[in-house]
Amino acid sequence: METYTWYDIFIEELYKKYPKKSDLIQSLMDLLFIEREAVYRRLRQDVLFTVHEIAKISSAWNISLDAIIGVNSRQIPFQMRQMHYLEPSQDDINFLWQVVDGIRLIKDFPDTEFMDICNKLPRQILAGYVNLNRFYLFKWMYQYFNDKDTLQYSTIRISDEMAQLTIDYYDAIKYVPHSNFIFDRRLFEILVSDIQYFHSIQMITDEEKELIKKDLYHLLDYLLDVAENGCYPESKCKVNLYISELNIDTNYSYTFSKAANICFVHVFEKYNIYTLDKMIVADFKMWMQLKIRSSIHISVVDKRNRIEYFTKQRQIVDKL
How far, in Å, are 8, 25, 69, 70, 169 from residue 5 at the CA level? Predict the structure, then answer.
């Protein structure tokens, strides 16, 4: 009987990055500066990748060797995915398509559960609103890149492929069987304050501000619909909305099902630190669900708090 080794898993990870063999071979040739036949021999395991080559591939393609080898060192293997959303590499594009395909897959498992605790609009919701999504990209560029002096909201350009990815992601996420969102009570207040700041320093024009404001109204109408019915209107998949009574310091999320277990900490606006470790995902799920104890459930049952919350958020947006 053949032995299934960590090296076999490593080869599988390479094919996950580039499912098409010709693309994988060319990418390995470019990365390692070796001939095509040398790549074929390594993929067939006639010759093994050297330690230096494995380290170089793992670093360049964001592959966790700890997770593959299964080192039991009491250290949880977390990975950070860095991505330039306005100028993504082909590897970034491939990764995002894998995310969309993965969401489409897990929707077929009725036990799948998603939860997001957030102090800013989560991507699952943000992706459906072009001007709001563009604002978050603009803010990300302003905070973490060096061309602040010349940056304007109007200069943010999203490629056709990234725009399609965003649409497909937004459509796919609606079919996750169970979704839970806990919003920071001041989420919309902070967002409006940020928009007002950029408008005050003339990085956002009056016309652009009005477009963002229009998106905010549409979003609030949509969230009210979701809260009243307890589900996405497009798919009827269950959604619970909560408002946290305590401040939330960043966005956290997990996806849990028989098909996939993963948790994320969202950092620097657009980056993710994540792990697939089953034990930490289970703990993460428990910690996040405890947050419900200090939150108000505004979906379906609590009409008074639901109306009060959405009325207040519209008043906040009115100030733009």
Answer: 5, 22, 9, 11, 34
Say how many CA atoms lie within 13 Å of 236 toward its Cβ.
0
Which alpha helices (DSSP H) does 74-185 contain, by range?
A: 90-106, 123-126, 130-144, 160-173
What does the alpha-carbon distance between residue 27 and residue 128 come to, in Å, rounded to a whole number?
33
Separation between Cα atoms, residue 312 and residue 320, nearest integer Å = 14
Helix (H) or strand (E) holding 128: none
Looking at the chain, list the stretches that DSSP marks H as alpha helix, in order from N- to C-terminal side: 6-17, 21-32, 36-44, 51-61, 65-69, 90-106, 123-126, 130-144, 160-173, 187-200, 206-229, 278-290, 303-318
pTM over 0.85: no
What token pair was written down for 194?
């940020």
pLDDT in tens, the chain (320 residues): 355 677 788 888 899 888 889 999 999 999 898 999 999 988 988 888 887 788 788 877 877 665 565 544 445 555 556 666 777 778 778 878 877 887 888 777 888 888 888 888 988 899 999 999 999 989 988 887 766 666 899 988 888 888 898 899 899 999 989 999 999 999 999 999 999 999 999 999 999 999 999 999 999 999 999 999 999 999 999 999 999 998 888 778 877 776 666 666 665 555 566 666 667 777 777 888 888 889 999 998 888 999 999 999 999 999 99
Please tell me the distance from the alpha carbon of residue 42 to that of residue 51, in angstroms, as a whole number: 13
Domain boundaries, the chain: 6-75, 80-318
90: tokens are 């082909």
The whole-angstrom separation of Cα 14 and Cα 138 is 33
State the DSSP code for 77: -
CA atoms within 13 A on the CB side of 111: 6
